[in-house]
Amino acid sequence: MKHNIALILLTFGIAVISYFDFGSYYYWIILVFLLAGSSFLLILGSSVLTLNYFIKSVNKGSSNGISLTFDDGPDAMLTPKVLNILEQHNVKATFFLIGKYVEKHPELVNEIINKGHIVGSHSYSHDNKIAVFSTSKLTDDLEKGIAAIQVVIGKRSTYFRPPFGVTTPRYKRALKKIGVNSVGWSLRSMDTVAKSKEQLLNKLTSKIKQGDIVLLHDNCSITVDALPDFLSFCDEKGIVIVPLDENISIKPYA
Q1: What pLDDT, on a 0 to 100 scale, did the predictor assign at position 53?
Q2: For the chain, which has fewer Cβ within 10 Å, the N-terminal or C-terminal residue?
Q3: Are 119 and 69 in contact (CB under 8 A)?
Q4: Which residue in the list 3, 75, 217, 245 is annotated as catalytic?
Q5: Which residue has the higher pLDDT, 133 or 22?
Q6: Rounded Cα gap, residues 241 and 206, in angstroms
Q7: Mapped to the 3 state alphabet, what secondary structure does the chain carry?
Q8: What's the pLDDT score for residue 50?
């Protein structure tokens, strides 16, 4: 992946400056520059999933439509409202579910499936420290999240979205071991930090484009408030909303 290229370039750069006098002013300037640059790339690559720095994610579709995805559910209060709105507009979406909430609300998972939507995993714990888990602990968490969904729906999901969109080289090893595909996004709604319904709608309506995978959250009340207007906007503009598997041509279940 890209982090390997960055590591090679860093190594090459250090090898090149080794020809400078070790005590040279330029040696230390260039070394600091190389280390600062590599640190910046490491932080940027870890935190921006769409860069595909540590793992390869599917971040955009290839269809003429767009796809809606919802993270962090199922939520007992808000997920049913999201489902009702989607049903009213005859829209199918994908829900990336947190395993511990799947165990708590299996009836909501079944409702999602029964209404024709797709479910994927968003880890089991969604722990704030998940990005620094060991490879074995991370693998166990991701597998537990997949298993929680499988217990409810009887099928093994092949879609996974990293919590917070943060990745490390350990994710690559974990995803390979459990055999799932990382699915990112091309349009991040920022609904978790939007200050108003109007701000969220403006973000969505001004940025939406063909093939987009839209990141939303079904545990945010502001998303529930804005969703009907956004779907109406799509209807008025002739923007087709397609299921995620149709957009990215990857089967959602094994």
Answers
A1: 81
A2: C
A3: no
A4: 217
A5: 133
A6: 16
A7: CHHHHHHHHHHHHHHHHCCCCCCCHHHHHHHHHHHHHHHHHHHHHHHCHHHCCCCCEECCCCCCCEEEEEEEECCCCCHHHHHHHHHHCCCCCEEEECHHHHHHCHHHHHHHHHCCCEEEECCCCCCCCHHHCCHHHHHHHHHHHHHHHHHHHCCCECEECCHHHCCCHHHHHHHHHHCCEEECCCEECCCCCCCCHHHHHHHHHHHCCCCCEEEEECCCHHHHHHHHHHHHHHHHHCCCECCHHHHHCCCCEC
A8: 81
Say whether pTM exceeds 0.70: yes
Report the pLDDT value the prediction gives residue 192, as an integer from 0 to 100.
Answer: 96
Mean pLDDT of the chain: 90
Out of 3, 71, 105, 245, which one is annotated catalytic?
A: 71
Structure confidence at residue 194 as a pLDDT band (50, 70, 90):
very high
| Cβ proximity of 123 and 164 under 8 Å | no
Chain position carrying tokens 């598997």: 245
For residue 36, pLDDT beyond 90: no
